[in-house]
SCP domain-containing protein
Amino acid sequence: MHRSLITSLLVLTLCPLAIHQSQAATAGDELLAALTKRVENNGDVSEIFDSIEDLPNSEVTDLYKKVERVWPRLRDAWISDFQRIARDASGKSGNNKNRIRDLRKELAAMQGLADGPMKEALKKRGMPAIDELRSLLVPKTKDIIATADDAQKKKRRTILAIARLRDILVETAIIPLTQTSVSELTEAENTVTRALSGLDRKGLKIMENNRKTAEKKKVPEPERIGVADANMMRLLAGLSALEIDPKLCEAARDHSKDMETLNFFAHESPVKGKRTPNDRAKNFGTSASGENIYAGSTDPLSANKGWFYSPGHHRNMFSSGHRRIGLGQHNRHWTQLFGR
């Protein structure tokens, strides 16, 4: 078997001693040779990284230049390999379509039950169905890597070692960079993984636009996270994602504040001009078609979980009639508003 591209590049580009035997090896060359050998044998490389701080500045700079010369090819070669691994893993999971359809049918059928049986069904099968759908439809990079053969896993260990080496050299030589090599590599892998998602592409685009809208309109991060989590569950269940409405967030936040301040917990507010959810939405220049309320935690995921297990709230959160969503927090109170 021929050497992998990564190993060949390491030997030919990073270890000039392998080509020019007549030249005296620098401490940096010896470090690279030791790193290559250690990675090939699946050994611990931390000791080698620790030794970088003992190198003279000139050798650190020279070593960085050698690594920098080969890094783009190493990175791109691995991402190309990872794309093939991911496609193979995705192909093997093609027989999950029937299971996905069955789980979505099971979730949809729960909404047609009376409240008592529905609550029991949601408790026993609701969230397990969502979790299974998540595992089938939202692949994880680590799960894709787990399907790789030993040679491919060794390639990844090698490229991660070189990425870490580059980062340490950058830090030691005080070279300004906006992103570490390790994060650059893992983000590229995650981009490949996300492209394999079996979720509705339009829904994913809405979620990405929601993130941008929330940032632009300064929607508090816990509220944005709560909206994203609700949308993810909707996509897993086979429903459309909802567009975030910052004005609904404001109206929801205002109602949450009123509930805590005035010590009530209800959809009907005692405050003049705020009696119904739609009244409250109109006060902020929008409209509402449904509302969920929750109290007891500062965590948006806890609020969503509480609504998920409650039949009436669940039907609201998973209604196909909504197009917009807003979430508003005040301390431990939450209000979720929907709009058509």
About this structure: The radius of gyration is 27 Å. Confidence is low (pLDDT under 50) at residues 17-22.
